């Protein structure tokens, strides 16, 4: 094996060498630091917050808590150390490529963070009088203008809290539109390659889900879709570019057929990064599409949220958008439409989805990102994202099976399968091997339509040199999986943890800490499997 | 472009590897008529960091910030002092720029934080378990109602009049589509919540009764009594906590018999942020675990026997169950959960209790001073850090004029309940540890002026 980096890791630091080195008393190994739970750090009776105590008046008539919550406190130095040590057990974009397909893990610009923390945005209450927050409303309105223009749509609902919440918003608009027509259509068509949220959302919104097959070329089967259309179909949910990383060339024909049958077209916008500034979904007949601000527009994923999922809407669905939202009048003045004025301004709204205005902290970050790139930069984003993905596809297709490699270029992500691996070797082995190589693995086993799928989305913020290192590592792993290198079965070898026992976790769930302090890194028998 | 590392030479070399003449050749699947010939029209071009920061700073400066005014708003979003280390730690790139922990071997930092967070929420709420967070309090509330329906196989939710009206709106909106029956009511301006009326509404079809604690008017309902009545009818009690700091002082809902406790965690670590992102908290009895929505982090061991953490019980979730999932939620509110957890770790249980005492004392001082203003009286029999004041006229006008005078003087019930004339004179005011004696005096003086 050859290394692709001349600094840092050396082959001589492999497993055999580690075995010859002495164990430490602490369980830590230089910069590889273990960290126990905060509850095990001896924090009872401590507090990391000094408070100015006013004169306390007697407590009368309250159902007082019998005892303070049983939670230890830590002083600031202990707290900072605890979380800093924990942070070092995470992989992150800031450390290297994070090529999770359909997740768009691009660089998170730090200007976004700085702007979101300006007190004028961060320290403003959602129920302040409108006249006291014109700048906050202007941020929402400006971002809304950009999203509507970039997508060629009529309106945008800003309040959904994440992609799945945006899907829900779009489907509820469709439901409301059909109800307003006095019809009862209760079926939503979803391609079998769709992300699991699509059918889950349709069910959550009260629809029945019917599946549409894919063609051999990885696209929606237009004829099969047409055969399913009818008076009971409310609409379709199409991901475009789809989860195989391919553009749906029949999108307009799909939309026309669905519209002719009285249905609506929901587009899952998770993959908008591939076409932002290049294609406007409104030109393809889309009625509703959520935009993951945490994907295309670079707001941080934060270890699992918060996201933000504004939904752009066609003229047909715009009247049903949820409250609250921001509008501009003919004079350009901004108004916040809430329940108070909705009766006049927006009588057909399907209602409210969240307590306040949506993910304002994400709006400021996304607008900052958009203004930084401008219309020209966003187009470059899509081009570079697609270029990077095709570079990965063509650099690896002679060693990894690319199921749709012959059907033309991919969009922003490259899809491979496990075909050709030696007996007993799986996509999981390759993924865990990538961890040892210092990379976050790609999305694995999704989409479901490809066996042992590996979906690689490099994004536009990876350099060519960085991609070349990733490609070299993945090439080596593919060769090892084909050759039957058994050391892959036990990967990762160099991560803070080896493979974790997920079956044990699910069979006897331990979801909260109940035990006595345990030594760092050691399992405590009283906590594991004992309940 | 400062965020795009590819050079023109890189692009040329990469196109050669791909075997494409130009980048447009990579977009051939897009029908020609849908391909834009150049940048989207009507939008500006890229801008320098300096220019963007200047633009955004100007917008920020147009807002009257809570820190620049005597500030007394609550109603589901509370301003507390956030220790400096919280924001420092959540900006560690390893937390900020990580994804949902799908590869647990290299995500133990996030996973252990979530396990600690779940433990903290469960202990705060007095529930057996808690999940790894939801979007916000209002969506957590609706998910709890759906969960109660799955558990009891009944389709009617009884909502207390004290439930935040936005939460009630979210529930009504969603129920229209799921065809769940919602028995909701508006609060009345009485010193104590009408627990007896609520108990009467629970019947054999009721899946759950939803009670906010403290309620939207700041009053503290008798959860134990409601829990007992619900149990007698086979219904679940869902307690909703929009101000978790209160639980440093008043008894935890789980200890009073609540089956599911949901809440808004924004108070600790997250900040106001004009309404989001916030943090949905969700705890319940252990026996309901397989009906829970959202991500769960569980303890396990790795191949060498070391303790570690993973996302678990994912067979409830959309990526496995698709249309049969307990919820369509994927992402939780991870970074907000981290902020909450760090703030909670700094405080500890005893620190939270002290903070809660201070909040209550500040509010007592606020009440004592404002009720000296002619025409102003206190509604509440009980309260924590928020009360309802009764003004002699529509509180919307008072709030607007106060803001013009630089005082952010609470939330009018007219804003929350448009069209309910009988509530229009009600004003919700909150005092946390951030409120000073001078703030209170300014508020009282200006309010007297406004009402005179």
UniProtKB/TrEMBL annotation, chain A:
Keywords: Oxidoreductase, Pyridoxal phosphate. GO terms for biological process: glycine decarboxylation via glycine cleavage system. Residues 1-21 are annotated as: Disordered. It is an enzyme of class 1 (oxidoreductase). GO terms for molecular function: glycine binding; glycine dehydrogenase (decarboxylating) activity; pyridoxal phosphate binding. It comes from the Bacteria. Its EC number is 1.4.4.2. Pfam families: Aminotran_5 (PF00266), GcvP2_C (PF21478). Residues 184-302 form the Aminotransferase class V domain. Residues 383-481 form the Glycine dehydrogenase C-terminal domain. One of its GO terms (cellular component) is glycine cleavage complex. This is glycine dehydrogenase (aminomethyl-transferring). It comes from Novosphingobium chloroacetimidivorans.
UniProtKB/TrEMBL annotation, chain B:
This is Probable glycine dehydrogenase (decarboxylating) subunit 1. InterPro entries: GcvPA, GDC-P_N, GDC_P, PyrdxlP-dep_Trfase, PyrdxlP-dep_Trfase_major, PyrdxlP-dep_Trfase_small. One of its GO terms (molecular function) is glycine dehydrogenase (decarboxylating) activity. The keyword Transport does not apply. Residues 1-443 form the Glycine cleavage system P-protein N-terminal domain. Its EC number is 1.4.4.2. Keywords: Oxidoreductase. GO terms for biological process: glycine decarboxylation via glycine cleavage system; nucleoside metabolic process. CDD domains: GDC-P (cd00613). It catalyses: N(6)-[(R)-lipoyl]-L-lysyl-[glycine-cleavage complex H protein] + glycine + H(+) = N(6)-[(R)-S(8)-aminomethyldihydrolipoyl]-L-lysyl-[glycine-cleavage complex H protein] + CO2. SUPFAM superfamilies: PLP-dependent transferases. The glycine cleavage system catalyzes the degradation of glycine. The P protein binds the alpha-amino group of glycine through its pyridoxal phosphate cofactor; CO(2) is released and the remaining methylamine moiety is then transferred to the lipoamide cofactor of the H protein. It comes from Novosphingobium chloroacetimidivorans. It holds the Pfam family GDC-P. Belongs to the GcvP family. N-terminal subunit subfamily. The glycine cleavage system is composed of four proteins: P, T, L and H. In this organism, the P 'protein' is a heterodimer of two subunits.
